[in-house]
Amino acid sequence: MIRYALRCEHEHAFEAWFGASADYDDQVARGLVECPHCGSRDISKQIMSPAVAGTKKAVFQSDAARMQTLMMQAAREVRSHVEQNFDYVGDAFAREARDIHEGRSEKREIYGEATPAEVRKLKDDGVPCAPLPPLPPDPSKAH
């Protein structure tokens, strides 16, 4: 058995097991391998380190790397969702968030910039706000 790290055309990462390398090639050519997230059949193998049996540390590092990849993907998806669906208010974020909270402005989802002091004041006053995750590096442009 061989395990491959795979990625679809929409950058969804997942893993799959095959009896042999030729089985992967055959199944992809016949359109039998699809992304479990979106159903895409445009699949490619990703670079993987070989599995070396015998050390728990190697298993932990593999799990840690997989978790890091998942977290970075989640951060990208959260940020993308906010940028596509929320109103950008720039450096007026603190004022606009307060106006929405106090009913002086139309209720809507917003994002923008605020200083640490402005964020502390918003939180002290009960105005809900949270930091937007920074955009992680694009894995396709690594190295």
List its traits.
single chain, two-stranded parallel ribbon, alpha+beta
Q: Overview of this structure, please?
A:
The protein is α+β, with helices and mostly antiparallel strands. It has three domains: 1-48, no CATH class; 50-77; 86-124, no CATH class. It is built from four helices and five strands. The strands form two sheets. A three-stranded antiparallel sheet has the order 2-1-3. The chain has a two-stranded parallel sheet with strand order 4-5. The mean pLDDT is 85.
Per the principal axes of the C-alpha atoms, what is the gross shape? elongated
Total domain modules = 3
Beginning-to-end CA distance, first to last residue: 29 Å
Computed CA radius of gyration, to the nearest angstrom: 22 Å
The total count of strands amounts to 5
In terms of per-residue confidence, which ranges show pLDDT below 50 for 5 or more consecutive residues? none
- Helix content range of the residues, please? 25-40%
- Which structural class is indicated by helix and strand composition? alpha+beta
Q: What share of residues are in beta strands?
A: 5-15%
Query: How would a crystallographer describe the biggest sheet?
Result: 3 strands, antiparallel
Strand order of the largest sheet: 2-1-3
Number of helices: 4
Q: List SSEs in N-to-C order.
A: EEHEHEHEH
Average pLDDT taken over every residue: 85
Could you provide a short overview of the structure?
By secondary structure, this protein is an alpha+beta fold. The chain has helices at residues 21-29, 56-85, 93-101, 116-124; strands spanning 2-8, 13-18, 43-45, 87-88, 110-111. It has 3 domains: 1-48, no CATH class; 50-77; 86-124, no CATH class.
